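Need tokens for this chain, all 151 residues.
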Amino acid sequence: MGHPHLPTTEAAVAAVREVARAYGLEMTVTDDIGADRTSRRASAGAFAVLDAGGALPHEAFIELGGTPVVTVQVFPEDDAKITVEGVEFNDIPRDSVPAFLRSVYGGTAHVKAKRFPAGRWLVVALPGDETYKELIARTMLSPWLVRSTRG
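Here are the structure tokens for all 151 residues:
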């Protein structure tokens, strides 16, 4: 199942704002605009504001209030890093960010525990066949992660 296309960082921020509104969450956004301000500097030279193609890159850091604690860092390269209760999901396609957040706040995301090999994974299933899993460090079990554990 495809997700609506989010062509820019600003479009992704607007989509996250809609999810925050739907779940009654507070949201703060910090914007970094210009190659000299963004965290990824692959396409721009030192002290350059524009990238090599002449575009003005835009990166946003979003903090969502409530439980679980979630941050979203949207990069100009069409991807994002989403952190849920300290568990980092890197390289999430920008178009998948709203569905990812709906899964987390809608109760679809869960922790899967295994005895052998021992470990816990935060599993975020999106509509269709898209699923993201990240290993949870033993010391990172927050109350929300514990409550979300299955099996």
